[in-house]
Design brief:
35% helix, two-stranded antiparallel ribbon, 11 helices, alpha/beta, Rossmann fold
Length: 372
């Protein structure tokens, strides 16, 4: 039976959940949200919610003691002095901790995202220990004290050594009992996410911030659907290289762009580390759509069609707006894969455009509405 305080707690969580859902589009574009991310939870400022508190009675009147004359004011009164209080209603802001799982569920409910059905043979296994019983032998760290004393009490009762007036129970070696366990092997659905980003001169800080926010929410949703996630990062201008997460979001080059270099680097990474029979693979490329030549456009399309899309659950291309980029590559992809979104048997390529932070909401829905 659920206690009343637990019912109140659940109701409070539902209120918070509703507030987040109502303002989800605004939350998706908040830069500071990423900075508050912990291992399992993130702090979110929620407006117009009061935490329940104790309220005490009015203590303004009563018998006092000490120095003072009758009728003398005690302490400052509202409106006294030069810094009088305002008469406008304040805005209540409460920071609540929301687990990443809850945040992903709210995202799915609001965007109407279907749960992802993992593919592959799930060759990777998660091994855990489950306590299944009690046995008379084992290490001291697994000793079950309650069961040991119960055995000692039973022995003393049977031998007539137990005195109710002086209930002293002394276990001996034969009384000790230990927890027993067995290994539980559970196949787990694992996913690999490869993020690729253009870091040429036309991709500035504003574009990188859009990529950072989009990648945060992609991570949040995919981690809700898979037990194990590995994220890899590739940057490119005319050449491509794998980097760590910090470098991925901070590196800026000053050069041209050859998109095929990123796709070739991604292919080599998949060849060496991720068998599509065992991994659910997600590939995301972020660029302003500027490429070096038509020849490289054709090579990039061929790499997607022959090497990347067949191995992946989805290949997502996200084009961010830049004043310096041509923005043409998204048109190249849409022309090369006109039916990719509708044809689940064909190349799994999905394109989206993010011009401002407000577009992240629609971009996420575009990427994951197919449930791949």
């Amino acid at each position: 039976m659920i206690s009343k305080i637990e019912q109140d707690h659940q109701r409070f969580r539902q209120i918070v959940r509703g507030k987040i859902r109502k303002d989800l589009r605004r939350f998706l574009s908040r830069d500071e949200l990423i900075g508050r991310e912990g291992k399992r939870a993130v702090s979110i400022p929620v407006h117009d919610i009061d935490i329940p508190t104790f309220r005490y009675g009015d203590n303004s009147a009563g018998v006092g003691m000490g120095e003072g004359e009758e009728g003398e004011k005690v302490g400052a009164q509202p409106g006294d002095g030069d810094n009088a209080g305002g008469d406008e209603q304040g805005q209540h802001i409460l920071e609540v901790d929301v687990s990443m799982e809850d945040l992903a569920d709210i995202l799915a409910e609001e965007l109407e995202l279907p749960r992802i059905e993992p593919k592959g043979e799930h060759r990777l296994e998660n091994v855990s220990n489950k306590f299944t019983g009690i046995r008379p032998t084992g290490p001291a760290s697994l000793r079950h004290f309650k069961r040991s004393y119960r055995e000692a009490l039973r022995r003393q009762l049977m031998m007539g050594d137990y005195d109710p007036e002086n209930p002293v129970i002394v276990p001996i070696r034969e009384d000790f009992r230990y927890r027993s366990f067995e290994e539980i092997r559970k196949p787990q659905s694992n996913a690999a996410i490869v993020y690729m980003m253009d870091v040429s001169g036309s991709m500035g800080d504003e574009q990188k911030e859009l990529v950072r926010l989009e990648a945060f929410w992609i991570d949040t949703w995919l981690r809700r659907n898979y037990e194990g996630i590995e994220s890899r990062y590739i940057v490119h201008d005319v050449r491509a290289a794998e980097v760590d997460r910090k470098t991925f979001f901070s590196l800026r080059e000053d050069g041209g762009t050859r998109i095929s270099s990123a796709y070739q680097c991604c292919k080599e990474l998949l060849d060496s580390s991720y068998d599509p029979a065992a991994w659910n693979i997600y590939l995301f490329h972020f660029s302003d759509g500027d490429n070096s030549s038509e020849a490289d456009n054709r090579l990039s399309v061929k790499l997607i069609q022959d090497q990347l899309a067949p191995r992946a659950n989805m290949f997502g291309y996200c084009q961010v707006a830049s004043a310096y980029g041509s923005g043409n590559f998204i048109n190249v992809l849409r022309e090369a894969f006109p039916d990719s979104l509708a044809d689940t048997a064909g190349p799994r390529l999905i394109c989206s455009k993010v011009n401002t932070k407000d577009d992240i909401y629609d971009s996420l829905k575009t990427f994951f509405q197919a449930g791949r």
